[in-house]
Amino acid sequence: MLIGLALAVLGFFQQVESKGGEWKEAFRATGVGFFEEFGKSLDSCNDLDGDGVSEIIAGTLQANRNGLFGNGLVQVLSGKDGNLIFEFVGQQQEGRLGVDVGAADVNGDGLQDIIAGAFRESPGGNQEGSVYVYSGADGQIIYRLDGIEAFESFGERVGGLGDLDLDGCEDFYIQSSKRDTFFPDRGSAIVYSGKDGTIMYELGGTWSWPGGDGACLNGDIDGDGYQDFALVSLRLGGAVTVYSGLTGNEIYFIEGPPPNGSMGGSLDAIGDLNQDGVDEFIAGAPGARESLHGGMAYVYSGRTGETLFVLRGEEPYAAFGLSVAGVGDTDGDGYQDFLVSDPILHFGGGNLTGGVYLFSGLDGKALARIVGDGNELACLGMQVVGIGDSNENGLSDFVASSPCGLVPTNNVGTVVAFSFEPFLKPDARELSASQGGQITFTLDFSAEEAGKDYQLLASSTQRGRSGPGNAIPLAQSPILDRMFSQPPAIFTNATGTLDAAGDAVATMTLAPNQASSAIGLTFRFSAVSWESPTEVSAASATVEVEILP
Hints:
Blueprint: E1 8-10, E2 22-30, E3 41-45, E4 55-60, E5 73-77, E6 84-89, E7 97-104, E8 113-118, E9 130-134, E10 141-146, E11 154-162, E12 171-176, E13 188-192, E14 199-204, E15 210-216, E16 229-233, E17 239-243, E18 250-255, E19 266-269, E20 281-290, E21 293-300, E22 307-312, E23 324-328, E24 337-342, E25 355-359, E26 366-371, E27 384-388, E28 397-402, E29 414-421, E30 424-426, E31 430-432, E32 437-444, E33 453-459, H1 478-485, E34 491-492, E35 495-497, E36 503-510, E37 522-532, E38 535-539, E39 543-548
Parallel strand pairs: 1-22, 31-39
Antiparallel strand pairs: 2-29, 3-4, 4-5, 5-6, 7-8, 8-9, 9-10, 11-12, 12-13, 13-14, 15-16, 16-17, 17-18, 19-20, 20-21, 21-22, 23-24, 24-25, 25-26, 27-28, 28-29, 30-32, 32-36, 33-35, 33-37, 34-36, 37-38, 37-39
């Protein structure tokens, strides 16, 4: 177990570690109407168009369509290129379809269906709210579910919860922040069967005030054979409650940080980091204030609720943690990483740039920070979501929304997909000492690096930086010194010149039993291109190779 249950408290400036490589904008989709704020809600669903890539669900609750004002809009976009797959338009004036979106395969056909809240629609004449479930196969309405109380905001939050009752169909939740079921205006969360749309159970109490996300934890915490889930309430400083998927009974709850921490407005499962059979989850607390940190985020063990990591924002009056998301393995270390956004970050002291932070699921350290431009991509990170491997390089990608871009878009809104280019790809991650063998390293830098000298480097697995300007993401070690001075004979083409595409190929070859003394050791590799003998132009992400018996 690489992650123990000991709490790791990490301030952002102490955890930044560039791993080389580069996050690039893969594509962007932009709204069409001024002040509509395309992308104010965001989620993903599994592949609907057969290209093997998850799709993006984007809500525009202030959209004006079909002659109606504020009826709202939900669009399903290809996760591969941003092209439109489905578009759903709100049916009522001021209905606000798209206030929240989610996905669940409710009919068991293998395609996740789209859930969309319209919390101000008036099925009974008094803004009770409605929720629509659209087929992922053909876009037709599978269910329309309506609120039952005036102004209850039914559908303010929606989402999928996995197959809780093991009937082959994924179930889902709808939150109503003002329903009177348990106590006047305290709201409730209603869990519905995906198979027939009936209520499985309604959750709440005098404390409730539901108003945040939910997450399927992909594991059985209480040993009853059914997977369990977590939901958010905004009581006191916010709270996350973990429930039995079989009965809806509370298993445990976690209080947020007082005062007004707003923990759990955002919540997501982030994979089984500590390998105990249950997903961990992350909860954002954008209202938390500690010293000079504006906003926090907490990573919890799904099985026990124990805190694994505490993450802090950079600026004192920001909103770090407004959106959080599991994103999958972005760096190839076998652990699922996670995102935390701060859409009101003022990076560089100018306009509201916003920012998205990527953290390692291995140790909670920051892997990257991507900031908006303060104009078209102002407030970047209002929502973030992982979309899997959109460019088929084996690493996970993500999407972030900027619904309130300034010049020239005037809050039209933009959704941007980011993908990671590691620049270095081995064809194997392990090598047998007894059998020997060869690993081929493909260096795939951008074309701007064409014609520059390159070098393949190796070091220990200790994290750190070295080289001119600390630009190489490898720790100083005797192995690295040797690679700099004279690479061992086991390497071929460890140095050379990048071709016209910025590419090269190097190999490491071991004869049988040549590496017997290194059995059990892991080595970390990176490749660099040189601007000059004393200046690194670009560095790859690190990759690890283990020597087996």
